Amino acid sequence: MKVLVVDDDVVSRMVLMHLIDSCGVHDIVEAEDGAAAWEQLEAGLRPALCFCDLRMPRLSGMELLQRVKGNPELQAMPFVLISSATDRETVNGASAAGADGYIVKPFQGDEVRPFLHRASGPAVAWAAEAPARTLARLGVGAERLHAYLKGYEAQLATFAGEIDSLAVGEAGALRLQLERLHMGCATLGLSGAADALQATLAQPTAAPALHALLAQLRQAVAWQAELLAQDISVPVSGFQQ
């Protein structure tokens, strides 16, 4: 995922880029002001997300936002304004102009991460059951499903530390773990992830490929938790992407 960071203050720009990098997003493009950012966008740059300072020379964040939202090729790009201004008029103006978010300086990584999460979506286009359908099928409340997802994510994290040793000489134990993971995906409505695990069970798989699969599974679980949060308003803290 490519992220565009626009800020005329080089220190603020570097701090934000560091926070984004620490969240696991390393493809970051920077621009020294709105005009420089617009030149890159006109030249074909298509980031998945833009963080932009509000007050800059040549072309302000608000002006860049208006150009982006007025361009059919760019208007779907999530655009987050950043500013030290907290007055209602400024915040409401940003929302009215189409900003997808507003972050007040100084800020922390926890304020940046949700925007990165929503912009990234799942790493692979695996099918999954809508959280509301999973709730109805299992007959549980949203908090319980959230706990199940978090517990499954912890199971994946534990398995990640065991893959190398199991892949070397414990084929039976490795298969048992994969079967358990497959059952967990099926139970939680992660049908696409379950299919991927079923395919893995059908043929021997080396440790590097298992690590890659596990990373995709963990992101699929985190994304399902995000969808649950959006639909049912349940917090998603504790999940890793």
What does this structure look like?
This protein has 241 residues and is of the alpha/beta class. It folds into 2 domains: 2-120, 3-Layer(aba) Sandwich (Rossmann fold); 131-232. It has 11 helices and 5 strands. A 5-stranded parallel beta sheet has the order 2-1-3-4-5, with helices on both faces. Helix 2 (34-42) packs parallel to helix 3 (61-69) and helix 10 runs antiparallel to helix 11. The longest helix is centred in the C-terminal third of the chain and has 26 residues, at 207-232. The radius of gyration is 21 Å and the shape is elongated. The model is unreliable at 234-238 (pLDDT under 50).
Oligomer: single chain
Strand order of the largest sheet: 2-1-3-4-5
Percentage of residues in DSSP E strands: 5-15%
Question: What is the typical, i.e. mean, pLDDT?
Answer: 85
Distance between the termini: 13 Å
Task: Look at the structure and name the CATH superfamily of the largest domain.
Answer: Response regulator
Order of helices and strands: EHEHEHEHEHHHHHHH
The poorly predicted ranges are: 234-238
Structural class comes to alpha/beta
Q: Tell me the overall shape.
A: elongated
Q: What CATH architecture of the largest domain would you give?
A: 3-Layer(aba) Sandwich
Q: Could you name the CATH class of the largest domain?
A: Alpha Beta
Share in helix: 55-70%
Radius of gyration: 21 Å
CATH fold naming of the largest domain: Rossmann fold
